[in-house]
Amino acid sequence: MTATISPSPVRRSVTVKASPARAFEVFTSGFSSWWPKTHSIGTVPLKTAIIEPRAGGRWYETGEDGSECPWGDVIAWEPPQRIVLAWRIGTDWKFDPDLLTEVEVRFVPLAGGGTRVDLEHRLLENMGPKAEETAVMLDSEGGWGGILQGFGTVLDATA
Q: What predicted TM-score, i.e. pTM, was given to this entire model?
């Protein structure tokens, strides 16, 4: 009998100087202002990254040539408390409409002011045999750790 070990969800947090409403706005409407241009799955350089502001909305990138490349969709849109995104990018860094992992981001007000932004990327076991390896990459500073810190830096610069 072989036991399968599922990777743990990737969890990262950052504290920002903004209110939950402002943090949610920059995270979603201002997504392209802080998402690293190097983190693209398109065939041409990334021009913009977009989260459509509603449950059922698309999550995608546009290339410098105007082409679109889907990443997933919006599962829950609950401003300013949380957003849940379907991440449909496989271990080969290509869009897979049949894959479902989830990225939940919560915006938690802090007693002294500011907001803690908590990100959880879960259901990584759905990525198959390379799930554990991919989880390690997503949990690295080149993954969600660095991405969330970059979001905090951009947000705090506009506070």
A: 0.94
